[in-house]
Design a protein that fits this description.
The chain has 92 residues and is of the alpha/beta class. The chain has a domain of 64 residues: FAD/NAD(P)-binding domain. The chain contains four helices and three strands. The longest helix is centred in the first third of the chain and has 14 residues. The relative contact order is 0.15. The model has no long low-confidence stretch (mean pLDDT 91).
């Protein structure tokens, strides 16, 4: 990630409290802006999911949804990129 020069990361994973929380905490520690897609990850229990999301948010991560991330990436829905991303929202 460092080689790209980008400072904003979007993160999702299989299990929120295992696959997501620790990489997110490390990215935050390294100075990245991190957005966690809460609806693209899950956990064995709602309790574990909620605790992991709260921990990441308390550490500085932005908890969001796939739709919010797509909307942020679109910037302008009339642009070619915006039109492509709109197709993703229409899909689900």
């Amino acid at each position: 990630m460092k080689g790209t020069g980008r400072k904003k990361m979007f993160v999702a994973g299989i299990t929120t409290e295992i696959c997501v929380v620790f990489p997110v905490l490390q990215m935050l520690d390294e100075g990245y802006e991190v957005q966690v897609s809460a609806d693209a990850s899950a956990s064995w229990s709602k309790y574990g999911d909620d605790l992991a999301l709260r921990r990441m948010e308390k550490a500085g991560a932005i908890i969001t949804t796939v739709d919010e991330i797509i909307s942020e990436l679109a910037i302008d829905w009339t642009s070619p990129n915006g039109n492509k991303l709109r197709g993703i929202l229409d899909y689900h």
